[in-house]
Amino acid sequence: MLKLFYTPGACSMVPHIALEESGATYARHPIDFATSEQLTPEYRAINPKGQVPALVTDRGVITEIPAMLGYIARSFPEAQLLPWEDPFAFAQAQAFHMHIATTIHVLFRQISRPEYFADGEAAKAALKAKVPEMSDRYFGIIEDRLRDGRLYVHGDGFTLSDTYLFVFASYLRMGDRGDVAKLPFVVAHRDRIRQRPAVERILAVEGLAEAW
Ligand SMILES: N[C@@H](CCC(=O)N[C@@H](CS)C(=O)NCC(=O)O)C(=O)O
Question: Which residues contact 56 (CB under 8 A, 6 or more apart)?
Answer without folding.
Answer: 2, 3, 4, 5, 46
